[in-house]
Amino acid sequence: MRGNLDYAQKISYRSHKHTVFLRAVRLYCESVDELLRDLQSVAPRSLGLRNLLGYLDTYVRSGAFGQLSKETAELREALSKLSYGTLFRGDKVTVRKYAFEPDYTATILERFAKFRETEIEAPAPRKPKDEFSLNHIEEAILEFVSRLFPEQFRRLDDYVARHGGFIDEAIARFDREIGFYVAYLDYIEPLKRTGLPFCHPAVSVSSKETEVENSFDLALAGKLVLEKGTVVRNGFRLSGGERLLVVSGPNQGGKTTFARMFGQLHFLAGLGCPVPGTAARLFLPDRIFTHFEREENITNLRGKLEDELVRLHESCKIMTPDSVIVLNEIFNSTSLDDQVFLSTRVLQQFLAADAIGVCVTFIDGLSTLSEKTVSMVSTVDPDDPARRTFEIVRKPADGLAYALSLAQKRGVTYEQLRKRVQP
């Protein structure tokens, strides 16, 4: 239906445009009827789909829809019975009413029947394409046909004028939104086949008690599954007065991926989608604020630090206790002292608002900023600190793994130095 309506907008010949519009209305009526029958056959359990089923049933039974379906079928039937002939002489085409000439196909087959050497089964006639794509000659012929049958095409013109807004608003919105859910289910299906878990979360608009088990970032999982890689799963919890997860640890340890996962979980839960993980209990926020590094935009005449301050200031002004915050290594463009000062002020604003969220940082001190903060650390292999495990665990931040991996990389660990200074 959408394709035909879009195509109709590009057609200049009126008769062609209107016949395409008629086809779009027919497809609409058939699709609504079919959707109602299919929903009735599966007896959906969700409140949203049950409400949709009730709405569709009332809509289809309404006089307006019944009249639209009846009028559409009658008009198509009337137009389909029109017969005409075309005469081609050189580059001229004459269109006239059908004069009941014989079918010359049968005559030709009869004349050449005696030349057949074997009896073969005639190929089945090709099914005509159900489309309205015409070239300019065909469009002109259709315009001449409309002059031969003015009454039927006046009915068509009147039909189009009266039914321009034939699409029901609620059905159009469902059609637009259900596409996301179908696409999401298609996206996660190959992930589920590899054994990655998904669950329907328990959600609340009042309790901020949060707990997630064995979750993962959807975008990274999709990439790793294609590459036959291993998807590392993580979990977290916020209980009592805890509000902010402060994630620290070595670079390239999965901290940003964890922050994306945190935001995805709350966004998908708010849409009613199954979320990655074996179990989840989540708070439904009014808004989700995300702050990741951006490239400088020369059009706003602001430097990187100023631009980040402006964006964070806007978030601080409009966030509420029901908001979710996702911060990823903010203020990296300034000095360490300024970064500590600014990050502390921003986190104090978020904590004062009582919003929940996650903050990825290499400043360990932020994890002990308040009793509302929870320290989580990206871990490394104890036997090889340079190797990341990509597991994020709940424990106090100490910075040792990061310092040790840097020292090894630069060749200044105790053992490396001893070997270099031996006589």
Question: Top keywords for this entry?
Answer:
single chain, 4-stranded mixed sheet, Rossmann fold, alpha/beta, 423 residues, 14 helices, elongated, 6-stranded mixed sheet
Query: What is the mean pLDDT?
Result: 88
Q: Compute the gyration radius: what is it? A: 34 Å
How many DSSP E strands? 14
Per CATH, which architecture of the largest domain?
3-Layer(aba) Sandwich
CATH class of the largest domain reads Alpha Beta
Shape call: elongated
Per the CATH scheme, the topology name of the largest domain is Rossmann fold
Distance between the termini: 84 Å
Largest sheet entry = 6 strands, mixed
CATH level 4 superfamily of the largest domain: P-loop containing nucleotide triphosphate hydrolases
What is the ordering of alpha helices and beta strands?
HHHHEEHHHHEEEHEEHEEEHEHEEEHH
Number of domains: 2
Strand content: 15-25%
The amount of helix comes to: 40-55%
- Main-sheet strand order equals 10-11-12-7-13-14
Structural class: alpha/beta
Low-confidence segments, given as residue ranges, are: none
Organism: Ancylobacter dichloromethanicus
Keywords: ATP-binding, DNA-binding, Nucleotide-binding
GO molecular function: ATP binding; ATP-dependent DNA damage sensor activity; mismatched DNA binding
InterPro entries: DNA_mismatch_repair_MutS_C (IPR000432), MutS (IPR045076), P-loop_NTPase (IPR027417)
